[in-house]
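Z., the sequence and structure:
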Amino acid sequence: MEITGRDALVVVDVQNDFCPGGALAVPDGDAVIAVIHRIAGRFEHILLTQDWHPPGHCSFASSYEGKKPFEVVALAGGEQQLWPDHCVQGTRGAELHPALRLARAELILRKGFRKEIDSYSAFFENDRSTPTGLAGYCKERGLERMFFAGLAYDFCVGFSAIDARRAGFEAVVVRDACRAIGVEGSVARIEAEFARDGAWVVGSVI
C-alpha cells in the first residue's frame, strides 16, 4: 500500500496505564511499540492521542458507590463502561510509554479531560457529537487517510477509526500494531462496525 503526504499515522493511547503493570493494562500492550516504530518511518504525518482524565472522572468505577470496574452505568451521554482509575492527569500512568520514540509527531491530542463525559474516540466525545477538534486539524492540513495503531483495538482505536469515517476520512486499522482489552464480545462488536462503516483492517506490512 502506497503511503503519501495525505496519510497520517494516528498512535492511540500508548500510555503507561495501558501497558503491563499499569492500572488498566491491555494484555501484551507494550508489544505494539516495536510495530509502530517499524512503520512510522513511512509516514510524513504522525499524530498521538493521550487519555487525560481528571480525578473522579465519570468513567471510573470509584466515582460510584458500590460499582466495580467493567460494570456499565447510564449517563446523560449514553451507557458508560466503568474502568479502574487510569490515566489521571499529571500521573506517571498518564504519561506516554517511555519506550515510544516518535520525535517527529506533530500533534498530541489529549482526550477524556472533561469530568462528566468520556472520550474513547480521537474525533468525538462519547456522546458521539461533541468534536475534539482533530477532524478540523486534519482537514486543514490536507490529510485524507488515517492509519490507526495503539491501545486498545476494541475501544479507543476502534472508536477513532469509526469516527474517522464519520468525519469523512478513509480509515485503516493496522491490526498487529494494536492490542485488545476483550470485554464481553467487544472485539466482535468493533469489527462488525468496521465492516459496516468501511474501515479497513490490515497488517503492518503495508
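The first helix runs from residue 32 to 40. The chain has one domain: 7-53+85-202.

Let me know what you think.
H.
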